[in-house]
Amino acid sequence: MSKITTELLLERAVPRSTRLRKIETLNLSKLQLKTGDLDPRLFSRLRHLQKLDLSDNLLDKFPNSLTLPDLRVLNCNNNKLEDVTALKQFPLLEELTYENNVYLTLNDDYKVMFLLQNLRLLNGKDITKLANHVRRVNSRKLTSKVTAHWKKFFSDQLLEKYTAEQVKSIKKKFLKSVQTNVVYGPSSLSEFTRWRVKMIAEEFLANSLGLELNSDTEPEEKTDENEEESTESPREAAEDVAPVVHIYDPLVTVTPSKRKRSHSKSSPGNKRSKTQANTEEEAEEDVSAEPLHFLQCHSKGNSREDFKTQLWSCVFEPVLDSGARKDPIVSSSRTVATCGGESVCLIDCETGTVLKKYKVATEEFFSVAWTTLTMVISDSRKKAHNILAAAGRRGIVKLIHVAADFCYGEIKAHKKPIATVCFSPTQETHLFTASYDKRIALWDIGIPDCDYNFKASQLLVLETASIPLRIALVPTCPEQYLLAGCEDGCFAWNIKLDKGQKSRPFEAIFQFPGEESLTTSHRVDGLAFLNDDVVVSKSSKPGCIYLWSWSKSFDAKGKGCQRTMSAVILAELEWSTTDMSYLTLSTCPAKEYVFCGDEKGSVWMYNLSTYTTGWGSPKGKRSERRISPTQILTWPELRVNGEQPPEILVNNVVADPAFTYLVVLTSVNITAIWKKS
């Protein structure tokens, strides 16, 4: 990679020059330059530079102090730019191009139009008229809305005499509230609107009220825009970036009227030894959690009145730089993908910000799953990217390159709805789809090229006796065995691809206590592995969550298919006595926790770390009594528009691998995020 030196700058000047201060046109394209190569000390000597070509490089941002006071024309095409706000340091800029920077969106176009008052051409298009609208009309209307919001909700909170702490509190509340509630223009410009609202609000506080702002204000929150505004775009293909899935923003953030530390609710059960009791008390204290956010971001048609959309699935995004360490705690982020209704959302659990929203008007999404693909980008370079698969009622899998805000393809996997999907942990392109057509299919989704061309192929079809609801790959042999919880029991298949049979019946069905035959099997609507061997499953039998051993239950040496095997039960977990189905469970293997929601909005949490060692020993015995929950998180008192939401079912609850956040999906279109204290 070429490094920038004085000699290089003189050589690449057009025409060649003998003095840096004499250079007016400079071509630094196709040099594999990264942001760190742009040395501000060297560039500060280019006092008369007017035209700069940085196209076809690897820049992800601009340094804030390049000091090019006379720069008029800038070409940044074919880079990796993620932000444009640093361009404000070039106030005389008249022409700017940054096409083929996949991370830049329409919102960035509007930002540069506001920041660069002399800009005439953006990506080859005259934006004079639109830029004037952005700088004047848009700013005037947003300023009016920000001022009105202060007068209506906050002006009476500021007393004549106030402490610094009170001022700080009011500032934080106002900035958070104004970004959530001041809406203007189409949803495609929501990021730009929030950016301007925050800027205007800060100026308002500093200038009108004399409240100097600190840098510790809370991160902005996203809202949905319903009012119309001119959306003329300098990017001609802006509406064609994602022709199938469109990006919207969240609708409303619901806050609890009370926030109380949730304490454990102990259920009547067996007497415990003093040692065991102390251990559980310590665990209980350790998992004290408080609610952070309550989000209504999957509304049908973006309706604020939608409390009927069911939320079904969520999964945390893997961290790209975790490498080959395979440490589940290291390889987790605080970003979670959720799905329900016609949309898929990406949420920052810490801030409650809905980062992105993908919408398909005719779909109802039931399941999402992440994988990380090493994709070839321009110049044959390879880079890891997270890909999100989403599927539901239409039987179609959407493949989304999240960083690029782009749904690059779809797989018509089944003719009936897809209940759940999951990726192989060892083969990043292998995706399992379980459908209401009573089949589980294994797909190779391929790796898209730099133009997002890809080829998907079906590798295997597993025949089920009933609808598969949950699937799980066996951790010790994820390329050989798959478990599925179905409408009439729990089944296992051999999925090894070196076998010639492409369509396969199940190899085993597991029998649980109280089940004498297939005719008495119960629906298994919850299924997950707690560790390499312990399976956690929930059936339609009221109040019953079983923990059982895979290795002790499955006879790998047996021959033939469709064999019945008795599940070797290790323990039962005490849970709600409801007969409500499809309230699924999840596990946090790194912390040895099981989570399951109930029909009252509560989350039952089980810390099983004191039991797993005993279960793993050769002489491990079944726990004679049901294990009570370590803690039950009760649904806090919420009021939405002055009213309490209707009956709340917890359809799913998932913790990140480090058990920092707990995401709760409900039947009333509310996503609750709890944080471990």
Walk me through the structure.
There is one protein chain. It is globular and about 90 Å long. The protein folds into two domains: 195 residues, Leucine-rich repeat, LRR (right-handed beta-alpha superhelix) (Alpha-Beta Horseshoe), CATH 3.80.10.10; 374 residues, Methylamine Dehydrogenase, Chain H (7 Propeller). The protein has nine helices and 38 strands. Helix 3 packs parallel to helix 6, helix 4 crosses helix 6 and helix 5 runs antiparallel to helix 6. The chain is of the alpha+beta class and 677 residues long.
Q: Given the helix and strand composition, which structural class is it?
A: alpha+beta
* Backbone CA Rg: 28 Å
State mean pLDDT (0 to 100 scale). 82
Count of β-strands: 38
Overall form? globular
Q: Going across the major beta sheet, what is the strand order?
A: 1-2-3-4-5-6
Report the end-to-end length measured between terminal Cα atoms.
47 Å
Q: Please write the CATH class name of the largest domain.
A: Mainly Beta
The total tally of domains equals 2
CATH architecture of the largest domain: 7 Propeller
Give the helix/strand layout.
Elements: H1 6-12, E1 25-27, H2 40-43, E2 51-53, E3 73-75, E4 95-97, H3 106-115, E5 121-122, E6 125-126, H4 128-153, H5 164-181, H6 190-207, E7 246-247, E8 252-254, H7 274-286, E9 289-296, E10 311-318, E11 332-340, E12 343-348, E13 354-359, E14 365-376, E15 382-392, E16 396-401, E17 406-412, E18 418-423, E19 430-435, E20 439-444, E21 457-463, E22 468-473, E23 481-486, E24 489-494, E25 503-504, E26 508-511, E27 524-529, E28 534-539, E29 544-549, H8 550-553, E30 563-566, E31 568-574, E32 585-588, E33 593-597, E34 603-607, H9 609-616, E35 631-633, E36 650-655, E37 661-666, E38 671-676
Parallel strand pairs: 1-2, 2-3, 3-4, 4-5, 21-25, 26-30
Antiparallel strand pairs: 5-6, 7-13, 8-9, 9-38, 10-11, 11-12, 12-13, 14-15, 15-16, 16-17, 18-19, 19-20, 20-21, 22-23, 23-24, 24-26, 27-28, 28-29, 29-31, 32-33, 33-34, 34-35, 36-37, 37-38
Helix pairs in contact: 3-6, 4-6, 5-6
